[in-house]
Amino acid sequence: MQDEKPRRTQAERRAETKRALLDAARALFVEKGYAETGTPEIVKAADVTRGALYHHFADKADLMRALVRQEAEAIASDIDADTNTSQSPLDAFMAGASAYFSAMSVPGRARIMLLEGPAVLGIAEMARLDRETGGATLLEGLRHAQNHGALKDVPLEPLADLLSSAFDRAALAIAEGEDRDAYENATRKLLAGVL
User: Fold this and answer.
1) Where in the chain is CATH 1.10.10.60?
2) What is the 3-state secondary structure (H, E, C) of the chain?
3) CATH annotation of 60-194
4) Helix axes 180-194, 156-175, angle to 10 degrees
5) What CATH topology corresponds to 7-57?
6) Among 76-90, 93-107, 111-125, where is mean pLDDT lowest?
7) Looking at the whole model, is its pTM more than 0.85?
8) CA pair distance 166, 81, nearest whole angstrom
9) 117-173, pLDDT tens digit by residue?
């Protein structure tokens, strides 16, 4: 009697199809860019039908939205794993910044999160996805620093936006091959001045 593979459930098949679509879209968006990638290419690369694509995603932009959410969740998880509130505010921020730079160094991630995603979804949608997937950790860190005597009379949300922009710019430069140590040293100086 042959060993039979257990049959996959419908939910498992759906999850596998969705994963294949996200993986194919990610590879193509990184290689060619969103605008230059057609849904027929995505379907072919995922080895699924066009109907499967539209069963899981309303359109190509919805696929990008899901991809951005997936990437943002991975970034947030990496930052959470490397930071803790028992550190000084500066050390906690540097740990978070370093974790962010590492997370953004995953091949293709900076392009998806900092170039393609905002171009497709817009800044407001990217900010919403960021808040939903852990982007609030920067604001939480600023509140923690404020509770420990730093940042008196400083509006935290605008400061979080400004720091986020600086971290994004550094992450993009690092992903493009710039010296990570130089950016981390500059980040430490910036944060020491702010905190």
Assistant:
1) 7-57
2) CCCCCCCCCHHHHHHHHHHHHHHHHHHHHHHHCCCCCCHHHHHHHHCCCHHHHHHHCCCHHHHHHHHHHHHHHHHHHHHHHHCCCCCCHHHHHHHHHHHHHHHHCCCCHHHHHHHHHHHHHCHHHHHHHHHHCCCHHHHHHHHHHHHCCCCCCCCHHHHHHHHHHHHHHHHHHHHCCCCHHHHHHHHHHHHHHHC
3) 1.10.357
4) 170
5) Arc Repressor Mutant, subunit A (1.10.10)
6) 76-90
7) yes
8) 22
9) 999 999 999 989 888 887 777 888 888 888 888 888 889 989 988 998 999 999 999
C-alpha 195/C-alpha 186 separation (Å) is 14
Calpha distance 175→62 (Å, rounded): 25
Reported as a single tens digit per residue, the pLDDT across 57-77 is 999 999 999 999 999 999 989
